[in-house]
Write a structure and sequence with these properties.
The longest helix is centred in the C-terminal third of the chain and has 21 residues. The chain has a domain of 217 residues: TIM Barrel (Alpha-Beta Barrel), CATH 3.20.20. The chain has 14 helices and 13 strands. It starts with a strand and ends in a 14-residue tail after the last helix. By secondary structure, the protein is α/β, with parallel strands linked by helices. The strands form 2 sheets. Strands 9-8-7-6-5-4-10-11-12-13 form a 10-stranded mixed β-sheet. It has a 3-stranded antiparallel β-sheet with strand order 1-2-3. Its cofactor is [4Fe-4S] cluster.
């Protein structure tokens, strides 16, 4: 049950339907989900609450007609058909290749997950990817993709290996002639220059995400060189170089990624947003994505400040979106939340079909190749079972065991009793160890359920009061 603008709604897990209910029906449904006594006691409760037999009869008829209140009855998160589908997708539909060009970085951002103090990821290292690994990885994706493929460069700081990045781009253009190729990477910008920017702009289908946390005082608090000096002046100088080079770049974009550190307040969000709004005059279709630091990555110096309270980013995003401020921060993230609700599976009859949480198909949607040539599901997953190596490809049997069958076994008890299972936003990230799914993988499920409930409420508020704002949702896709 959830509320939106004074209206009560019931989300039905089995069908995916959302039903507008009055307060009497709300009482009936709540009683059905909580009472443990007999039918006579239930009927007595209805009478005590002033709910007539006629009202109860109408409700029962409606439930039967719409096939509601059945939930789901599942033993696995997969079927035999899904296992075969996974095999086909891995073999034939790899959509993105992420190349870890280097484990080195010229900065030491205080919240970086690759710092020695953060245990869930590898540390910075001196490993560099060879051109031999680059060739083999590109050859692999050529043979296991369809008509389009994204090649993304990762680090450390990928521009430390600009010549190898350039080599990969030229080799891909020469080798994968029958597919549309897009390129991209995230950069701290400190190593960019006019020569590099000019080349990148000439490639076409190039998408660059720049790490900028906001105004100088915000940015320089965490994004620092190895000697502790702030990087903002250098970053903004090079950002202008990049933007000028990309003014006429074909099918290319320059966007910003920002990390919000304490204090987590609306005032700080407004301060950062006002700063980035000035960028709109520089870049066409400019956007910013702002996120929190990864749990456990903040240094101790932040512990005395205001920590995350009631998800300030989400609340600020939705408040700004609803009021249609002149915003740029995180509007895309609001659309993604709305998209999940708008495009949820809705069936006339209750169905036991559930998605595999929000987990992509490892080895299909993307592959992440580290400097040594080992293949992982993605760059964000941290420590996890390997999928294979560029020398021999992906080992399908091990993939199915580690990421599908065993994952399902250790998740099913949590998932089968979850009302939000068909809209689950959780993937493998931070849920795996080097060998298997973590025993702590489902500890935060209630937080995600509350987030989905909030998204349901927000979506229906927009639907009731500002339906014209939702027209765009039928024109976008995030899958």
């Amino acid at each position: 049950m959830f509320e939106s603008d004074g209206y009560l709604y019931y989300y039905d897990t089995g069908t995916g339907k959302v039903i507008n209910v009055d307060y009497d029906i709300n009482k009936i449904i709540k009683r059905l989900f909580t009472y443990e006594d007999n039918v006579d006691s239930f009927i007595k409760y209805m009478k005590d609450e002033g709910i007539s037999n006629e009202k109860l009869r109408e409700f029962i008829e409606f439930v039967y007609e719409e096939d509601l209140l059945k939930g789901v009855d599942i033993n696995n998160l997969y079927t035999v058909e899904y296992l075969q589908y996974v095999k086909n997708q891995v073999n034939n539909n790899c959509g993105q290749l992420i190349l870890e060009l280097t484990g080195r970085c010229n900065l030491r951002c205080k919240y970086c997950i690759y710092n020695d103090s953060y245990e869930n990821m590898r540390n910075f290292n001196c490993n560099d990817m060879t051109t031999d690994v680059i060739r083999k990885a590109i050859d692999y994706v050529k043979e296991h993709s369809k008509d389009e493929v994204d090649i993304t460069f990762y680090g450390g700081e990928p521009l430390l290996r600009f010549e190898e990045m350039k080599y990969a781009i030229e080799y891909a253009k020469e080798t994968i002639r029958d597919k549309v190729i897009s390129y991209g990477f995230t950069t701290n910008l400190t190593l960019l220059n006019e020569k590099i920017a000019k080349y990148l702009a000439s490639v076409g289908n190039m998408h660059i995400l720049c790490s900028i946390d906001g105004p100088e005082d915000v940015h320089d608090r965490c994004r620092v060189f190895k000697n502790g000096e702030g990087t903002h002046k250098q970053v903004m100088k090079n950002f202008d170089i990049l933007v000028n080079a990309f003014k006429n770049a074909k099918n290319s974009t320059v966007k910003v990624n920002s990390v919000l550190t304490p204090p987590f307040t609306f005032e700080k969000m407004n301060y950062i947003n006002n700063y980035f709004n000035k960028f709109k005059n520089k870049i066409k279709d400019f956007s910013v994505e702002i996120t929190y630091p990864v749990d456990g990555s903040l240094p101790e110096e932040f512990y005395d400040e205001t920590l995350q309270v009631s998800n300030v980013i989400d609340r600020w995003n939705k408040d700004s979106f609803y009021k249609k401020y002149d915003i740029c921060i995180n509007e895309e993230m609001v659309w993604k939340d709305l998209f999940r609700i708008h495009n949820r599976l809705i069936t006339q009859q209750a169905s036991n079909w559930v998605p595999f949480n929000a987990c992509c198909i490892p080895g299909a949607r993307r592959i992440y190749v580290d400097t040594e040539g080992y293949i992982y599901p993605c760059e964000r997953i941290g420590k996890a079972p390997i999928l294979g190596h560029v020398d021999y490809g992906i080992k399908l049997d091990e993939l199915l065991k580690n990421y599908i069958i065993d994952y399902s076994k250790k998740s099913i008890d949590s998932c089968k009793n979850c009302w939000a299972v068909k809209m689950c936003p959780i993937c493998y990230v931070n849920r795996m160890t080097e060998k298997e799914i973590s025993g702590r993988a489902h500890l935060n499920c209630e937080l995600y359920r509350q987030a989905i409930k909030s998204d349901l409420s927000f979506y229906h508020s927009m639907l009731n009061k500002k339906p014209e704002r939702l027209k765009k949702i039928n024109e976008i896709s995030y899958y």
